[in-house]
Amino acid sequence: MTIKTFAIEYDALNDRNTFSNGNTLTGRVIVEITKETKIKDVTVKAKGKADVSFTVSQGQQSVTYWDNEKYFSQTQSVLPQDKAPGSVSLVAGRHVLPFAFQLPYQGLPSSFKGAYGKIDYRLSANLSRSLRAASKAEVKFTFVSQADYDQPTLMAPQHGSKDKNVVFFASGNISMDIFLPKSGYQQGEGLVVNGEIVNSSTRKIVPKEKLSKLLPVPLGITPTIQNCRILKVEYGLKIILDVSFTKNPVIKLPLIILPIDGL
């Protein structure tokens, strides 16, 4: 086998190994050959796209819905500048061919993978030779879209309320109010939940009056995605008051999850 190794790798920008809007992604294609070989070209492509697919049962039939959205695609030759594509001879040994791409500044949603869809970004390398099958290599990279901290909704406080009349084995009314100081939270940030329970019924409930809870936003979750046409990633806080012998009051409040600063 003439081509012993054909691989592509990139350089991390941070300890989370993520990239964001406008970042320069650098790396290299590694070619190791056992003897002098003529090649036509070595190219690298950087691209990003979203795909969704899901199946819905309709009676005795199933219908599959799918769609995709392409964000960008950039291709460059990584041959040395003094070697024009066409027919280039590489001597036996290990060759390192560097490349660099600047990622677009706008319009890119964060990487995501779910049960019915995904948004992924990848680098693919291609080595072409006359009368031979092309050698290919590929690697994915994680993109995290920069947060728009100018959104007025991020700092807007939230309030939800729910009333419930108790009729089985008791009487009266139970009301619940939940307060959040804001709507936007970074990964890893503490989410402060304050609430007030007013029990005007004859049924005992816990908590009896006020509640306060600090909930950490997980570090590993995908930030909110609102800039993709075919899929969205949304979050919310759901509070349930457990009341015996009746349907539990539920309050739902939307949340916006933001990436950690410093990406």
Automatic annotation (TrEMBL):
Record-linked InterPro entries: Arrestin-like_C, Arrestin-like_N, Arrestin_C-like, Arrestin_domain-protein, Ig_E-set
Domain Arrestin C-terminal-like: 170-262
GO biological process assignments: nervous system development; protein transport
Superkingdom per UniProt: Eukaryota
Pfam families: Arrestin_C, Arrestin_N
GO cellular component: a single term: cytoplasm
Family membership noted in the UniProt record: Belongs to the arrestin family.
Protein name: Arrestin domain-containing protein 3
